[in-house]
């Protein structure tokens, strides 16, 4: 499943302290941005020329055009 640059996704925290970590594109994948969400907070994000992947740590629901993912399942 290929993710296109510019795709939006939504992350909704189900608990306090959910970490959202953006990873760079290129030969060396690195962390370039982090956010901390508390219960009920929603983040709308987008893949860009700089962001190729996102890591979510904690209890959250992630919604993409491909479907919805619950980190607890």
CATH architecture annotation name? Sandwich
CATH topology: Immunoglobulin-like
How many domain regions? 1
Q: Which bin fits the share of residues in helices?
A: under 10%
Shape: globular
Beta-strand percent range: over 45%
| Mean pLDDT across all amino acids | 89
Strand order of the main beta sheet, please?
Answer: 4-1-6-7
Helix and strand run: EEEEEEE
The count of strands amounts to 7
| Annotated CATH homologous superfamily | TRAP-like
The major beta sheet can be summarized as: 4 strands, antiparallel
Q: What low-confidence regions span 5 or more consecutive residues with pLDDT below 50?
A: none
Structural class: mainly beta
Short description:
With 73 residues, the protein is an all-beta fold. It is built from no helices and 7 strands.
Throw out a few tags for this protein.
73 residues; mainly beta; Immunoglobulin-like; 4-stranded antiparallel beta sheet; 3-stranded antiparallel beta sheet; 7 strands
Mind explaining what this structure looks like?
The protein has one domain: Sandwich (Immunoglobulin-like). A hairpin with a 6-residue loop joins β2 and β3. It is mainly β. The strands form two sheets. It has a four-stranded antiparallel β-sheet with strand order 4-1-6-7, with no helix packed on it. It has a three-stranded antiparallel β-sheet with strand order 3-2-5, with no helix packed on it. It starts with 7 loop residues before the first strand and ends with a strand. It is globular, with a radius of gyration of 12 Å.
């Amino acid at each position: 499943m290929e993710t296109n640059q510019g795709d939006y996704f939504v992350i909704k925290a189900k608990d306090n302290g959910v970490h959202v970590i953006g990873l760079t594109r290129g030969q060396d994948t690195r962390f370039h941005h982090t956010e901390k969400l508390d219960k009920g907070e929603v983040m709308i994000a987008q893949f860009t020329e700089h962001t190729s992947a996102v890591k979510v740590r904690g209890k959250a629901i992630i919604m993409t055009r491909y479907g919805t993912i619950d980190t607890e399942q």
